[in-house]
Amino acid sequence: QTASSAIKGAIQLGIGYTVGNLTSKPDRDVLMQDFYVVESVFLPSEGSNLTPAHHYPDFRFKTYAPLAFRYFRELFGIKPDDYLYSLCNEPLIELSNPGASGSLFFVTSDDEFIIKTVQHKEAEFLQKLLPGYYMNLNQNPRTLLPKFYGLYCMQSGGINIRIVVMNNVLPRSMRMHFTYDLKGSTYKRRASRKEREKSNPTFKDLDFLQDMHEGLYFDTETYNALMKTLQRDCRVLESFKIMDYSLLLGIHILDHCLKEKEEDTAQNAPDAKRPGMQKVLYSTAMESIQGPGKSGDGIITENPDTMGGIPAKSHRGEKLLLFMGIIDILQSYRLMKKLEHSWKALVYDGDTVSVHRPSFYADRFLKFMNSRVFKKIQALKASPSKKRCNSIVALKATSQEIVSSISQEWKDEKRDLLTEGQSFSSLDEEALGSRHRPDLVPSTPSLFEAASLTTTISSSSLYVNEQYPHDRTTLYSNRE
Ligand code: ATP
After folding, report:
1. What is the CATH number of domain 170-259+282-290+307-379?
2. H-helix or E-strand containing 51?
3. Disulfide: which of 96, 194, 381, 440 matches 431 by Cβ 3.0-4.6 Å?
4. Handedness of CA 378, 383, 389, 394 (dihedral sign)
């Protein structure tokens, strides 16, 4: 506890000093050598003519590539005053949901920035990545890749603590009913019991397949924008030989929200934003796929109530807001990973091990996102369409027509799971027999499992209602 509050204090003092110091440096274009500059200042507890006195042990504060990061913050529309205010003037809140690496996470009171402690190798990797990474950002600011706003190191008593400042993907002011960390792998990708016991657990791929087996639905334009952004991002990551990243996905159910609103007023909400505070560009999920201030037909434009979430629907038709970003990209494909993969591959089916070569990783990640997680809304028949049938024979024919069309959709979706010469029914057997491919578990639909059909007889006519694909069958008529 003491260490954490000392880290917070040192971060605030260090960043306060370095950002303040930068304002005296004239604006100029970023040069290649700016990426490799490291500025260092000593902050003794009794203070010096450059630095204030403080209650923590003496420490040294290093700022990596200060001019380059200043330029990037500008690129994202963050004014120096806002950056200073968010990080240094309000308390930093420690997140109690750290990942397996043991990193500490802090979020600023206004919800804009996340501070993560990183290992030496990760900090080194980010430094190397900077020129190419920001060349990509410059060309294309529509991205779900993490936005890095600063890289710093605190040294005290022989200990180095390196931190990155980046965008916060999950605003605390919006309650996330479900949070997932998705890698597109199914091997050991279920949240631990300890994680599940937390008040806001982060679930994983297998949990998603179980809870949301129908996926999440978007209108065509939003879906295309999202998939295009993810594809471009994965290609960038692949080009840097980066893998093992995740899509952090927060799901807010709007209908739940209405019920909860009165009970839950602002319990977890961050402090109100400072009046007149500049809005941070590109930091919301919607802006990340859509670009700032644009609204294509069919894409719902951002408004304060959505907090930059992407509108979507569940297969039950519930309205959702999705918050997402790619995280944890600083683990380069190093020798350790290669070794880890080769021995794991001997023991398990190599395809499902989460450590794999970058292009395979990117392809599997994308395939999972576009076939299992995100779907176009036309696949979801939100309002059942009625087809009139005047006889039992016509009713049967219509039912079969609907079933076979949905069954075809299902097959198209699953076709890429088949290996050469394999039949659809063998997918079931494989799913039952396989310990390595739990992604195959949703079974091959039999005729009536492919669609949910409701028939009703009304004034001596028969109707067939098409409902959600893949739901269990409800086939009944109220007079037969
Ligand atoms: P692991 O080694 O398990 O991958 P890690 O320590 O490297 O873990 P991350 O995977 O980067 O940590 O993140 C752990 C958790 O912290 C995430 O599941 C998420 O809940 C939260 N988190 C990380 N980055 C962000 C971010 N930019 N915005 C909001 N929450 C974040």
Report:
1. 3.30.810.10
2. none
3. 440
4. positive
- Smallest CA separation from ligand 1 atom 12, residue: 99
**Residue 246 Cα: closest atom of ligand 1:** 10
In single-letter form, the type of residue at position 78 comes to I
Sheet bearing 461-469, strands edge to edge = 386-389, 461-469, 451-458
Atom of ligand 1 nearest to the CA of 146: 27
Tell me the CATH number of domain 1-168, given options 3.40.640.10, 3.30.800.10, 3.40.50.720, 3.40.50.300: 3.30.800.10
465 Cα to the center of ligand 1, angstroms: 44
pTM equals 0.73
Position 174 scores a pLDDT of 84
How far is the C-alpha of 100 from the C-alpha of 211, rounded, in Å? 23
Residue 429 has pLDDT above 80, yes or no: no
In a mutational test of the pocket of ligand 1, which residue from 116, 117, 176, 282 has the highest number of ligand atoms less than 8 Å from its CB?
A: 116
Average pLDDT over residues 435-453: 40
